[in-house]
Known about the structure:
Blueprint: E1 4-11, E2 15-17, E3 35-36, E4 44-45, H1 47-59, E5 60-66, H2 67-72, E6 86-90, E7 105-108, H3 111-122, E8 126-130, H4 133-140, E9 146-152, E10 160-161, E11 177-181, E12 184-190
Parallel strand pairs: 1-8, 1-9, 5-6, 5-8, 6-7
Antiparallel strand pairs: 2-10, 3-4, 9-12, 11-12
Amino acid sequence: xxKVVMNASVSVDGFIAAENDDPGPLxxxxxxxDVPLDGSGVLNVSQASYDHIRPYxxxxxxxxxxxxxxxxxxxxxxxxxxxxxxxxxVTHRPAPEGWNPDAPFHFVEGIEAAVTKAQELAGDRTVEVxxxxxxxxxxxxxxxxxxxxDVAPVVLGAGKRYFGSVDSxxxxxxxxxxxxxxxxxxxxxxxxx
Length: 193
């Protein structure tokens, strides 16, 4: 079974977006370099970021996201982002009306069910959990193996917190990866068990 990783770009003050869901300059690092990160022609990062991010993206089999993220992205038009095989959406509501049932999206209720379904789909590959409320719930349940952060040099001041509404301490190990890219600092923390 693959590991479960919580991941997102984050401001230095701990936010993944403003209250209106606008990430502002948090993703500037994804277009600030000259090395193509994927085949889109849009994402170009520094060589250091590419060397860190591309292998990680290649090991992800499934992403877990909340219904809010699914809704604000219009379900990624039925195509999982970044070449990922499947998306598991944590929700109390069914798939949207008219949703293509063959799209590789799975709508489940509750974080435990989401992690179980994601691990089943991912096999030995990594399950990525989007930061925010769902990611914080998965961390609080003790189901996250490591926390990854792409820290952008920006202070948002307020907004959607990286760890969502987590309200109790959770210990992480010392960072075992620290990579400086252009407009970003990539960090990886194993979760202390």
